[in-house]
Amino acid sequence: MPKTNTYAILAAAVLAAQAGWAQEVRVYNWSDYIDEDLLTKFEEETGFDLIYDVFDSNEVLETKLLAGGSGYDVVVPSATFLQRQIAAGAFQPLDKSQLSNIGNLWDVVSARTETYDPGGEYSINYMWGTTGLGVNIGEVTARLGEDAPINSLSLVFDPANMEKLADCGVHFLDAPTEMVPAALQYLGEDPDAKDDESLAKAEAVLSAVRPYVQKYHSSEYISALANGDICVAFGWSGDILQSRDRAAEADNGIEIAYNAPVEGALMWFDQMAIPVDAPNPEGAHAFLNFILDAQNMADASNYVYYANGNIASQELLVEDVIGDPAIYPDAATLETLYTTTPFDARSQRSLTRMWTRVKSGT
Ligand code: N2P
């Protein structure tokens, strides 16, 4: 190598080292949502240092994001939140010339996320799933009989059932934008309604079972279900399937099942996007492109039991994932799933106040 080039490279390395932060990529993703071997693999392949933090609430992510200066290069809001964050100017458009793997995206998922982010200008789909019922079969049938409605919203919204389950423990997600649609669906109302009258109906359902809910929390239920601390969780599909596996591995006699409610389940999409003030946009694109790789995406889904938006990954998925209709729903199940739209500023305020009342039992 000619000497001048060596000097140029050395000078660049010194500059990069002085800049320090520029060599880091900071990712803020949901908890229990990746195979951590992939984090090391990203660092080895790209030379970036990866700072990987986790959250379990769209509201927490949104507060950081909209305050600005979060310091994150990649964040992963659900699509309904992403849509209003795009409107608020929170993201920079993706530079698709830096995403050589973008052709791996699955058109079936892109067609659905198109509503939230037209043309995929700001985001790529990471994973998607449904919200439903995590059940400890033994404990629940012991209390409600062999005919326990383990695949119905009545399991968690009928106070008569919940009263009998209270002693073995029930967790609900601390996610009003998911619990309210579920309560409306239970009533046979439009799950996407946001007017005051509809919110009041949902509140009545949620308040009636509130005395029997041990905790509103969006990640603890994975281990709590697996080790028998609780017997029901209204939670996210892949999390409950991870819980099922943890119990099986512990060989503790606990059988966990996930069911999307027969009345219909929420189908959500978690999207990777780059904040407008990301310190390292180049590193952010490198991370997105790494995630868009078929093998990496398959490894992630095989580990966390969530479906993804990557068609090329499908032949690399294990049968336990691609063959499980709770993860990759068949056409009939897909028909029963519903999606939602963002709450606007006014309805969001009503929702937040209502959720505080529900949780505090006032
Ligand atoms: C992962 C939860 C992600 C699903 N633990 C919620 N969007």
Structure description:
The protein is α/β, with parallel strands linked by helices and 362 residues long. It has 17 helices and 10 strands. Strands 4, 5, 6, 7, 8, 9 and 10 form a 7-stranded mixed β-sheet that branches. A 3-stranded parallel β-sheet has the order 2-1-3. It is globular and about 55 Å long. Residues 9-14 have low confidence and may be disordered. Pentane-1,5-diamine is lined by residues 30-33, 78, 236, 239, 268, 270.
Find the count of extended strands (DSSP E, 2+ residues): 10
First CA to last CA: what distance? 73 Å
Helix content: 40-55%
Mean of residue pLDDT values: 94
Key features of this structure:
362 residues; alpha/beta; seven-stranded mixed beta sheet; three-stranded parallel beta sheet; 17 helices; 46% helix; globular; binds pentane-1,5-diamine
Indicate the topology.
Blueprint: H1 3-19, E1 24-30, H2 37-46, E2 49-55, H3 58-67, E3 74-75, H4 79-87, H5 107-113, E4 123-136, H6 137-144, H7 154-157, H8 159-165, E5 170-172, H9 176-186, H10 196-209, E6 215-216, H11 221-226, E7 232-236, H12 237-250, E8 256-259, E9 266-273, H13 281-292, H14 294-304, E10 307-308, H15 319-322, H16 331-336, H17 345-360
Parallel strand pairs: 1-2, 1-3, 5-6, 5-7
Antiparallel strand pairs: 4-7, 4-8, 4-9, 4-10
Helix pairs in contact: 9-10, 10-17
This protein binds pentane-1,5-diamine.
